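Quick log. Single chain, no ligands specified.
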Amino acid sequence: MQITSLEATPVQVEIRSREEPYGVAPYVAGYHTFEHVLRLVVRIETDDDVVGWGETMVDPEPNVARAVMEHVVGPEALGREVWEVESFLDSFEYPYMHVRPYVAGVEMAMWDALGKTKDVPLHQLFGGKRMDEVPIAYCLGITDPEEAAEQARWAREEGFGVIKTKSGLDVDADVERLTAMHEAVDGDLKFRLDGNQTMSYGEATETAARLEANGVYLQYFEQPLRTDSVGGYTRLRQRLRTPIAVNEDTYHRRNLFELVREDAIDAAVVDMVPVGGLLATKKLMGLCDEANLSVAHHSSFDLGIKNAAVLHFVASEPAMDLPPDRVNYALADDVVEERFEVTDGCMSVPDGPGLGVEVDEKKVEALRVTEGKGISYEVTL
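-> predicted structure:
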């Protein structure tokens, strides 16, 4: 079960227009607008011909992603047994270089290969699933109030119970838009507001206080302040009735611990890729459970590979008490043979071995970017 080869292929997938069902493009998120997504598809193969798949981000661009995989992460994976996850993760202690997202993509592929070798789904390796269907949060970028209200009505009709939307460009516009969405569904939907670190303390306080005054009670207000703002989050939580959550702070080691120690937050929004993998995320769950935090999983236009990993993880993790954010339904294409569908606001947990998805390697090749060049190499054992 030793890893003998590793390939990392950057792919680009377009996001469906907001004029289409489940489309969200252009997706305005603070100071960034998304109309397509770049992801890195990871393929490992073992000496007994088992193939494992993983997925991670492309940051800041494909050449850098390939170089990190080829020169830093890949050499540590080759020759290892697929079950040597802990020692693989412990091989990357670079105090001035952040490589955890790339490590996470390979670790995901190792779990997939291990599950296939044992002929069990990933959720069994993580304690067993607690549900067959996972409720998910519908995600919507910044739009005008009229369109946002219509999207909220549509989401309710489709069976969603929660909408996550972005904010941070203008307090008046954010308040008007959230109020319009709330009124359009007669208060039947819960809302998450993500500030993406764009707000000052004053702007965050005003936004939440005005929404409270309008009767709009958020499920949580996500990361309005920049990371490492423990004092700001402490004061924000003391002044507001709105639950306070962090996202990007969970990507930095010990930040979540500091926020818990200062009793500064109500919820954590984690993501297994920037956190450093499924096992690293599992370790965070212990802290969240002991601190009695609510937990949701973040989405970054994940393809079907990572979406499968998220569903397995959420279904098997008791600390995950809130629906995960999902946006993969908005992608115009995918690399898995059978795409995940949304039914009554839920997605089904796969039951096949490993991640439980089949990857279409022809589709990976068709979606490849940067002149058809990925990175691949192998060792002979």
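Confidence is low (pLDDT under 50) at residues 372-381.
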